[in-house]
């Protein structure tokens, strides 16, 4: 088993019309044994920028703390919050810096940039960025997430339809992966508000 699969995870971010959604499962496991059913994988950097971290749970928390402190220093120095593209470059640089002993994480970054244009990207554990205009996925359920998102995604969805689409994609995908699941955690972000919802999923 790969160290990336040790705790199990499912992460997906999807863009809509001037909005985006980011969702994860809630299971923390040690291989096939479930440890917790309320594990947090999505972190809010500011109102229009969210970070999802799949992979090894302890590395995800360590990396989040490093990124949060760097973001706060940027805020103090620049007197503004980071744009999603800038934050993606920061994450990439921090991961590449540790390339000989990497964080076992695959980040998903989602945010609203200039003119409230949604930005999503993912990268591997050493910071190689992959940008997308529709959706990005990460984690042990990523193969089934690709299939579900490709069949359900439509461009320019309003935020309610986007919530429905990402929720159905997440729930149907984690049913096909024994290392992730036990409900879901979804954030829908529009220029004016952030909506957080908990999904109930199969508990087996």
UniProtKB/TrEMBL annotation:
Membrane-spanning segments: none
One Pfam family this sequence matches: Proteasome
Keywords in alphabetical order: Cytoplasm, Nucleus, Proteasome
PROSITE patterns the record matches: PROTEASOME_BETA_1, PROTEASOME_BETA_2
UniProt subcellular location: Cytoplasm; Nucleus
CC annotations in GO: cytoplasm; nucleus; proteasome core complex, beta-subunit complex
GO biological-process terms attached to the record: proteasome-mediated ubiquitin-dependent protein catabolic process
Family statement drawn from the similarity comment of this UniProt entry: Belongs to the peptidase T1B family.
Protein task: Non-catalytic component of the proteasome, a multicatalytic proteinase complex which is characterized by its ability to cleave peptides with Arg, Phe, Tyr, Leu, and Glu adjacent to the leaving group at neutral or slightly basic pH. The proteasome has an ATP-dependent proteolytic activity.
Quaternary structure annotation from Swiss-Prot or TrEMBL: Component of the proteasome complex.
Protein name as catalogued: Proteasome subunit beta
């Amino acid at each position: 088993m790969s160290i990336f699969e040790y705790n199990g995870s499912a992460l997906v971010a999807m863009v809509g019309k001037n909005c985006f959604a980011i969702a994860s499962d809630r299971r923390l496991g040690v291989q096939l044994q479930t440890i917790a059913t309320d594990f947090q994988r999505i972190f809010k950097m500011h109102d229009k920028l969210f970070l999802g971290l799949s992979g090894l749970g302890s590395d995800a928390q360590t990396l989040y703390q490093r990124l949060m402190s760097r973001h706060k220093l940027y805020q103090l120095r620049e007197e503004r919050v980071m744009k999603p593209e800038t934050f993606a470059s920061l994450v990439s640089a921090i991961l590449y810096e540790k390339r000989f002993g990497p964080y076992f994480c695959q980040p998903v970054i989602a945010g609203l940039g200039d003119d409230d244009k949604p930005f999503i990207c993912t990268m591997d554990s050493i910071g190689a960025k992959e940008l997308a205009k529709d959706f990005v996925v990460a984690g042990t359920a990523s193969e089934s997430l690709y299939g579900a998102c490709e069949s359900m995604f439509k461009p320019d969805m309003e935020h309610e339809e986007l919530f429905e689409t990402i929720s159905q994609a997440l729930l149907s995908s984690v049913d096909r992966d024994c290392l992730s699941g036990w409900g879901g955690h979804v954030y829908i972000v529009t220029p004016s508000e952030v909506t957080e919802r908990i999904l109930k999923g199969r508990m087996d």
